[in-house]
Structures are given as C-alpha cells and as structure tokens.
C-alpha cells in the first residue's frame, strides 16, 4: 500500500514513534533520520529519539519546536494509555536523562494531538519544503494502534517539484538492463524495516 503512493511520503510508526515501514519517497525525505547515528546505532529509526538526540534534527526540521511539542504530547498520551509498557518507559527514561529539551516538555504533561497540519523541512538535497500531513490511526488489535503519516505537496507547487526530485532519487535504478537488477539510489530500505504492499 505504501509503495503505491509515489508522490506522497508515507510511513507507519508504532506507539513510540518507531518506524515500522516507509515507502521510498519517505526514506528519501527522511534521509537524515535513516542515516542518523540514533538509527544506525540502535538498528531502527525512531522519530522521537532522532528529534531530541541528533543535533542535525534542528537543521532538518524547519519547525523543530512545534514538532518537538507534538512528538512529546503524542508519546505522553500513549504512556497514559499503556503505563506499564516497558518499551515506552525505557524510551522516556533514556530521553529524560539525555535531553533537557525533552525533559522540559515531558514535565508539562501536554497531551494535545494533531492529526493534520503542515510540516516544514530543510532537506540536504531538496532544500526547504512545506508539506501537508495527515495522520491516520490503524487499529491492529484491541488497545493497539499504528499510525500512518502521509506527507504531500500542493499540486503544481515548487514543493511538489522537489518531491518529484526526491522520488526520482529514490526510484530503482537499472544496472545492466535485466529485470530485478536495479539498485535504489535513495536511503537504504532495510534500515526502516520492510516496506508494505510489495
């Protein structure tokens, strides 16, 4: 399903904002996340860990403070729903110890959530982008939900042209003309786990 969204950057995350799946355009858009030491060191991408523990996140997000507030509010909401979840408690403990910015936000007890809005990026290859996003809950079992976030650009805009550029960078690139021998020019697919709908 994700890979069919060729001009939308789509990813699925768990309740702790760990990336479970991402389409090629999302991997290209979030290349700094997937190439971050916070991802490579742990073996999986986590939006909250990257946001607060990688200094480069402040350059990548054009609205770092707003995104930080939203991530912490969402994480606190999930912590309230599942107070005994060991993974959430471990992540919160790690970030509370390592990041004063996270700790200050966590102590405000804000649980305001945003299902749609605008995200601002400063991409190392595409430059500045302003993208609309929609977040959709995907129930997987009783009391357990995944989130699919889809980022899109206004049709005909400069931001759409930049997404098209990123999509071309993420597209399979043939090496010798034979089917099945292409290589992706974008970030490695394996970092975020398997893509969906392939």
Automatic annotation (TrEMBL):
Organism: Pseudosporangium ferrugineum
Region (Disordered): 170-198
Stretches assigned to the MmyB-like transcription regulator ligand binding domain: 1-166
Superkingdom, natural source: Bacteria
Full protein name: MmyB-like transcription regulator ligand binding domain-containing protein
Transmembrane segments annotated in the record for this chain: none
């Amino acid at each position: 399903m994700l890979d069919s969204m060729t001009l939308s950057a789509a990813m699925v995350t768990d309740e702790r904002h760990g990336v479970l799946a991402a389409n090629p355009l999302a991997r290209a858009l979030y290349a700094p996340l997937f190439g971050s030491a916070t991802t490579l060191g742990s073996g999986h991408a986590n939006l909250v860990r990257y946001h607060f523990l990688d200094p480069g996140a402040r350059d990548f997000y054009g609205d770092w403070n707003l995104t930080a507030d939203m991530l912490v509010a969402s994480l606190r909401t999930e912590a309230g729903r599942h107070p005994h979840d060991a993974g959430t408690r471990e992540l919160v403990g790690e970030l509370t110890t390592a990041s004063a910015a996270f700790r200050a936000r966590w102590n405000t007890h804000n649980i305001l959530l945003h299902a749609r809005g605008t995200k601002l990026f400063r991409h190392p290859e595409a430059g500045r982008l302003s993208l609309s996003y929609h977040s959709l809950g995907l129930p997987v079992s009783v009391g357990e939900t995944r989130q699919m976030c889809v980022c899109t650009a206004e049709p005909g805009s400069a931001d759409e042209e930049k997404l098209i550029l990123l999509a071309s960078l993420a597209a399979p690139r043939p090496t010798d003309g034979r089917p099945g021998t292409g290589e992706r020019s974008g970030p490695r697919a394996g970092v975020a786990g398997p893509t969906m709908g392939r």
